[in-house]
TrEMBL record:
It is found in: Cytoplasm. SUPFAM superfamilies: Glutamine synthetase, N-terminal domain (SSF54368), Glutamine synthetase/guanido kinase (SSF55931). Belongs to the glutamine synthetase family. GO terms for cellular component: cytoplasm. The keyword RNA-binding does not apply. Pfam families: Gln-synt_C, Gln-synt_N. Homooctamer and homotetramer. Catalyzes the ATP-dependent biosynthesis of glutamine from glutamate and ammonia. Transmembrane segments: none annotated. GO terms for biological process: glutamine biosynthetic process. It comes from Roseimaritima ulvae. This is Glutamine synthetase.
């Protein structure tokens, strides 16, 4: 009989930014199938999700991955938080995604900063002052430019061994800032994999005595912020072959600026300033290959005859991918496609 360690992972109730929690359940001969992972419970009064006199919240397994970073046989079990009666908890963003037929595909570009707790700055930054201005750090190689590669490579390997569909990594514009990309042909699955990848990154950082800063503007001044650009498509965008349809979908976002900003991450006003490859937080624009727009129409979409995807560049690095996907799906479905502009 083989003992298996199941790491149940969930999102707490902290606001404005939820954080990851997890605990281990030891079971016998686990199959690795999420359907065989039992519903568990936790003390919601310790995570700002319940009162002390009625503190039980439920963990409903929704995705399961091998845990390659643990000795023995382990699994990472992503969970939704449910009330004690089995209904979705108010903090359960995954339950708000209305896409049961998985028509929507999502790719998230998760930026983050590796943080030195001793200096309270990104790794590579001097204890006093600043490094050379940004420019040489993006997709860089070499000492003094690509700082923290050993952490990034270790994280990538763990993600791939666990079966997460991480499609790439790169050093970002600010020193100590990096990115990984996750893609799934399911909005919920894309959210699951971003959160599990975030969990693995936090665990790697623990081992290296650094931390991960998810804030969207970790260093004030002339430094890029951190985003979580959301690339999305549905069957309409993948097949329409029409510039007019793309423009109608983009225009559906215009009257919903605040609705999106409300779920696109805390302190995003510090990042969405109109500078550093962003549009201002209170404005909306779209354009082909325009990284200063709210929504970028990739050149690949145009070259394929207007069959492809869109990129919403506004979500912050600390946003919940479940809530981002939910908002985008609702807006795309509201588009008046086929009606005169």
């Amino acid at each position: 009989m083989t003992k298996c360690k199941l790491e149940y992972i969930w999102l707490d109730g902290y606001q404005p930014t939820q954080t990851l929690r997890s605990k281990t359940k030891v079971v016998d001969d686990f199959s690795g199938n999420v359907e065989d992972a039992e519903v568990w419970s936790f003390d919601g009064s310790s995570t700002q999700q319940a009162a002390g006199n009625s503190s039980d919240c439920l963990l409903k397994p929704v995705a399961c991955y091998p845990d390659p970073g643990r000795l023995g046989k382990g699994f990472l079990v992503m969970c939704e938080v449910m009330n004690s009666d089995g209904t979705p908890h108010r903090t359960n963003g995954r339950s708000t995604i209305m896409d049961d037929d998985d028509d929507f595909w999502f790719g998230f570009e998760q930026e983050y900063t590796i943080w030195n707790p001793d200096t309270n700055k990104p790794i590579g930054f001097p204890a006093e002052g600043f490094p050379a201005p940004q420019g040489p750090y993006y997709c860089s190689v070499g000492s003094g430019k690509a700082i923290g590669r050993e952490i990034v490579e270790e994280h990538l390997e763990l993600c791939l061994e666990s079966g997460l569909n991480v499609e790439g990594i790169n050093a970002e514009v600010m020193m100590g800032q990096w990115e990984f990309q996750v893609f799934a042909k399911s909005a919920k699955r894309a959210g699951d994999e971003v959160w599990v990848a975030r969990y693995l990154l936090e665990r790697v950082a623990e081992a290296h005595s650094v931390s991960i800063n998810w804030h969207c503007k970790p260093v004030q001044g002339d430094w890029n912020g951190s985003g979580m650009h959301a690339n999305f498509s549905n069957s309409l965008l993948r097949t329409c072959g029409s510039q007019e349809v793309y423009e109608q979908v983009c225009n559906a976002f215009q009257p919903r600026i605040q609705e999106h900003i409300d779920v696109y991450g805390a302190d995003n006003d510090q990042r969405l300033t109109g500078l550093h490859e962003t549009q201002s937080i209170d404005k909306f624009s779209y354009g082909v290959s325009d990284r200063g727009a709210s929504i970028r129409i990739p050149i690949a979409t145009v070259e394929r005859g207007w069959k492809g995807w869109l990129e919403d560049r506004r979500p912050a690095s600390n946003a919940d991918p479940y809530m981002v996907a939910s908002a985008i799906i609702n807006t795309v479905r509201s588009a008046k496609v086929g009606t005169p502009a």
